[in-house]
Amino acid sequence: MSFFRGVRQAVFGAPLDPLSNKTRHSIALVAFFAWVGLGADGISSSCYGPEEAFRALGSHTHLGPYLALATVVTVFVIALAYNQVIELFPTGGGGYRVATRLLGPTAGVVTGAALLVDYVLTIAISVAAGVDALFSLLPVALHEYKLAAGLAIVVVLMLLNLRGMKEAIKVLLPVFLGFIATHAVLIAYGILAHAGEFGRLIPEMAADTRALGNAIGWAPMAAFLLLAYAQGGGTYTGLEAVSNNVNMLAEPREHTGKLTMLFMALSLAFTAGGIILVYLLWNVTPVEGRTYNAIAFGAVLHQMGFDTPAANQWALLVVLGLEAGLLFVAANTGFLGGPAVLSNMAADSWVPHKFRYLSTRLVTENGIVVMGLAAFAILWWTAGSVTLLVVLYSISVFLTFSVSLLGLVTYWFRKRESKSRFGRLLLSLLGFIVCAGILSLLAVERFDQGGWVAFAIIGAIVLLCVAVRRHYEWTKAALQHIDEQFEGVPFGSVAEPSPLVPEAPTAVFLVGSSRGGGLHALLWVQRMFPGHFRNFVFINSRTVDARSYGGAEDMEAMQTEANVALKYFVNFCHSNGLAAKSYLSFGTDPIDGFAELAAQVRADFPNSIFFTSKLIFEKDNWFISLLHNQAALVLQERLHAAGLQMVILPMKVEV
Fold first, then answer.
1. Helix (H, G, I), strand (E, B), or coil: what is residue 249?
2. How far apart are CA 41 and CA 244, in angstroms?
3. Is the link from the previous residue into 606 a cis peptide, with omega within 30 of 0?
4. 171 partner at 20 to 30 Å CA-CA among 132, 280, 532, 625?
5. Maximum CA pair distance of the chain?
6. Distance separating alpha carbons of residues 162 and 415, to the nearest angstrom
7. Would you call 91 exposed, middle or buried from its count of C-beta atoms within 10 A (0-12, 13-18, 19+)?
8. pLDDT tens digits for 72-111?
9. What are the helix and strand counts (H, E) for the chain?
């Protein structure tokens, strides 16, 4: 093992076998772990979403109960609607897959771009809010270090996720459970401690509401409440995470997904709605350098018996420490969901295909790195401002919600033969109206306060995706043209092929799924070295990517396809009286796979020369290099270092 590989393995963990059923079982998430790994995003939003909504009420805090009720109802409406996504798309993909399949590729790429922004902001806002919670206990003079602390935490979380999702979840599990336990007690006590005053408070709030309605008009008051409700849109983020990552769940996936969604909805509704009521009942007002949760829970702890300054400070330290910890767990969701969206978009050629590839730890390493770097950049740009990040976050989230739910509305509208159609259509329509309404309010009222940035980023990603897809479509057409040119090459009529002679000169071809590329290399070798090679060997190393690792049936389909492709070349040689053999391997790194197969072939056929084709573009540039890996050149260097001879044959692509 090289020094670099040893260090990498020590940091990220030992490689996992992608073909092992034990491996698949060990990394699949049961409902409880899925609730921790994916649901933390939703629950943690209660640390900043309710505060932003309650702040927007200003002095009209008597509207708090309506805000709390609307929050609880919205959580369950969105959760129930996304249960339908889990049913219809049990292999994952969530909002991106819904929009693509039900509304078309244009809606799909817009939703995918919004989801990518959503998950980047999940990391950024969770880290920023977590740092705010921790620094609420420190002097204001130290707050200048908040940004540096947040950036460091993003890097640590990125490295943790490169080891594997279950590794990260197990580390963060105690924090998650601690948050749930402490906040459930604090919220319950905070509400029940004022239960005796409800008889007085409810009539007073109703009277204040009537007075405000009469003073400014009922329509303006409703608009004001809706704007505050929309400002707290970050509260509902994370509810789509389960549908995006169904492929990560343990079987039966649909049941596990729905159970996870139930856990998420119940915990989020209780926490977010309860915190708004605690703000109201304990008369929370702004204090410089402190979050509303710090103010409210400090007061609750004081009445619970932590009444000395030291005791109150230590108790609050535990509560806010767990709150910050949960926010960091939520940031972890961005490292799970973002790469999953990238891999789905890569499968449809909207982003570079490399985002489908898994690392030796069976995580989409490229996607994790991109999510981490993007979150680092946006956290730096916004200086960790939660208020600004909430605006960007809410717009991207509710754009995704709106398009996805519109897709469900159109699906159930067309599904006239379904007995449950009407109820599901109404639920989807209600969810769409709620989400589209929040999105519209945010777009209008917060456009100049950062909203335009969200739309600009999403638009730029969409344009980039369109450029990538056009190139891949052009390349695909060029390869099909090459395959068509070789379709006319006839099979021979030899019934008995020549036997293999291990010591004889052997031509070894590194092939993929394209028959044209393989035949191009084979016929070129026969033309340039007539009668020289006695054996013809074909090797293929297939990459187990994110899509093929979505389930056992996908793996079986990939193995069947690979064997069929190799069998074609062997049969072609046999039909022309040539001795032929094939080798096949599966793994997460095609270079390693081909190198290992090459060593095996050399052991079986000592006098081997390796051949492969490389696509040559008329106008090569950095963009094309980004979209196409340089596997042939890297592998040639690797084989030459091992004392093996390899020849790269240029294959120009043109339509």
1. strand
2. 13
3. no
4. 132
5. 101
6. 42
7. middle
8. 888 888 888 878 877 777 666 667 888 888 888 999 999 9
9. 25, 5
Residue 330 structure tokens: 């939520």
Q: Catalogue the long-range contacts made by 545-548 (C-beta closer than 8 Å, 24 or more residues apart).
A: 545/343, 545/356, 545/357, 545/358, 546/339, 546/340, 546/343, 546/344, 546/346, 546/347, 546/356, 546/357, 546/358, 546/364, 547/343, 547/344, 547/347, 547/356
Span 39-55, mean pLDDT?
79
Residue pair 536/507 in contact by the 8 Å Cβ criterion: yes
Homologous superfamily (CATH) of 487-652 is HUPs (3.40.50.620)
Backbone dihedral angles phi then psi of residue 614, each to the nearest 5 degrees: -130, 130
State the chain's mean pLDDT as an integer. Answer: 79
Domain range 29-452, its CATH number among 3.40.50.2000, 1.20.1740.10, 3.40.50.300, 3.30.450.80: 1.20.1740.10
E strand spans, 245-298: none
Reading the block at residue 33, the tokens are: 């772990």
pLDDT over 70, % of the chain: 81
Tokens of 223: 């608009």
Is the Cβ–Cβ distance between 579 and 498 less than 8 Å?
yes
Q: Which residues neighbour 556 within 8 Å (Cβ) at sequence distance 6 or greater?
A: none
Domain borders along the chain are: 29-452, 487-652
| pLDDT for res 505 | 92
CA distances to 352, 478, 654, 655 from 618, in Å: 20, 12, 8, 11
Q: Are 581 and 570 in contact (CB under 8 A)?
A: yes
Beta-strand runs (E) in 578-642 = 579-587, 608-616
Residue 212, Cβ neighbours under 10 Å: how many? 18
**Calpha distance 341→111 (Å, rounded):** 10
Helix (H) or strand (E) holding 538: strand 535-543
Q: How confident is the model at residue 548 (pLDDT cuts 50, 70, 90)?
A: very low
Whether residue 10 has pLDDT greater than 50: no
Is-contact 312 304, C-beta < 8 A?
Answer: no
Res 40 pLDDT > 80? no
One-letter amino acid identity for 395? I
DSSP 557-596: HHHHHHHHHHHHHHHHHHHTT-EEEEEEEEES-HHHHHHH
- Nearest CA to 598 out of 650, 532, 645, 566 is that of 645
Whether the pLDDT of residue 152 is over 80: the answer is: yes
Supply the DSSP string of 491-509, one letter for each residue: P---SSPPPP-TTS-EEEE
pLDDT tens digit sequence for 603-640: 999 999 999 887 777 676 667 767 776 677 777 888 88
Please enumerate, as own/partner, the contacts of 21-24 that have beta carbons within 8 Å and a separation of 24 or more.
21/552, 23/362, 24/549, 24/552
> 44 exposed, middle or buried (CB, 10 Å; 0-12, 13-18, 19+)?
buried
169 pLDDT above the threshold of 80 = no
> What does the alpha-carbon distance between residue 573 and residue 498 come to, in Å, rounded to a whole number?
10
Pairing state between β 506-510 and 579-587: unpaired
Task: Return the H-helix or E-strand segment holding 535.
Answer: strand 535-543
CA distance 248 to 198: 45
pLDDT in tens, 252-283: 777 777 888 888 888 888 888 889 888 888 88
Report helix, strand and coil shares of the chain as percent, to nearest 5.
Answer: 75, 5, 20
Q: Return the higher-pLDDT residue of 307 and 420.
A: 307
